[in-house]
Specification:
Shape: globular
CATH superfamily of the largest domain: F0F1 ATP synthase delta/epsilon subunit, N-terminal
CATH architecture of the largest domain: Sandwich
Distance between the termini: 59 Å
Radius of gyration: 19 Å
Number of domains: 2
Oligomer: single chain
Order of helices and strands: HHEEEEEEEEE
Number of strands: 9
CATH class of the largest domain: Mainly Beta
Helix content: 10-25%
C-alpha cells in the first residue's frame, strides 16, 4: 500500500497559485495575474473588503483595515480575520479606516454581514 503524501498548502506561495492559473482575466498577462496574486498573499490577514451601500448609492467599496459601527449593545469594531456574524446597525456613524485615513458615513439604520474578510453593510432597510 502506498504511503500517503503529506498535505501541503499550495496557497503558501504565489508561484504555486500562478502555476495553477491556466488562463488570465481579459486584458491581463500571466505576469499581471502573478503580481495580483503576490499582492493578495502579502496582504492576507491585514486587510478586508468592505462594501457599504444603499439601494441607489454605493458609499464605500474597497479595501479597509477596520470598520466601526454601533448596534444595540454599543460601538464595535471589525478587523481582518473577524469571526463571521450579522448584526443590525443603529443610527450613527459607520467609520471605515483604510491606508488613506478614515471615511465617516452617517446612517439611520442598516445590516452588517461579516464573513471571510468581507464586510457588507446594507443601509436604509
Amino acid at each position: 500500500m502506498a504511503k500517503p503524501e503529506p498535505a501541503t498548502n499550495d496557497l503558501a506561495t504565489s508561484d504555486a497559485v500562478a502555476d495553477k492559473t491556466e488562463t488570465s482575466l481579459p486584458g491581463q498577462t500571466a505576469g499581471e495575474v502573478s503580481e495580483s496574486i503576490d499582492t493578495v498573499v502579502k496582504t492576507a490577514g491585514k486587510n478586508m473588503h468592505v462594501k457599504v451601500y444603499a439601494p441607489f448609492r454605493v458609499y464605500y467599496d474597497g479595501i479597509a483595515q477596520s470598520i466601526t459601527a454601533v448596534n444595540d449593545t454599543g460601538p464595535f469594531d471589525v478587523l481582518p480575520r473577524h469571526h463571521n456574524f450579522m448584526t443590525l446597525i443603529s443610527t450613527g456613524d459607520v467609520i471605515v479606516r483604510n491606508e488613506r485615513g478614515e471615511e465617516k458615513i452617517n446612517i439611520q439604520r442598516g445590516i452588517m454581514h461579516v464573513k471571510a474578510d468581507e464586510v457588507i453593510v446594507f443601509l436604509d432597510v
